[in-house]
Amino acid sequence: MGIKTTRWDSAEFLKTEEDIQLYLEACIEEAGDDPAFIVQALGVIARAKNMSQLARDTGLTREGLYKALSPDGNPTFSTVAKVAKALGLQITVSAPLKDTSQDHFLRLP
């Protein structure tokens, strides 16, 4: 008798705005230099929120959104910005936190 498995879908577990925020923050951190990972995360969030409503809110087609936010999608920044806004998200940029783990100097007041 084999082990029965089911397909994991993160969208099923994104129930609250906090869930969505924490999920996206984790994906951005995990993505490193892979923007497709972040785009795919937006696709997961879009499915969790309702892709049809998102299409209406962005003025894009549902099929176009599925394609743009798929692992093979390559959306324009304009599309990403529209999706983020429609999902109630804000795109921000900040400098990376300085890694102080290598600082070996004694700091005096």
UniProtKB/TrEMBL annotation:
Sorted alphabetically, which Pfam families does this protein's record hold? dnstrm_HI1420
Q: Name one GO molecular function term.
A: DNA binding
UniProt xrefs under InterPro entries: Cro/C1-type_HTH, HI1420, Lambda_DNA-bd_dom_sf
Entry's transmembrane regions: none
Q: Which NCBIfam families match?
A: dnstrm_HI1420 (TIGR02684)
Q: Which PANTHER family match?
A: SSL7038 PROTEIN (PTHR40275)
Q: What is this protein called?
A: Putative antitoxin (To hypothetical toxin)
According to its UniProt entry, this protein's organism is Nitrincola lacisaponensis
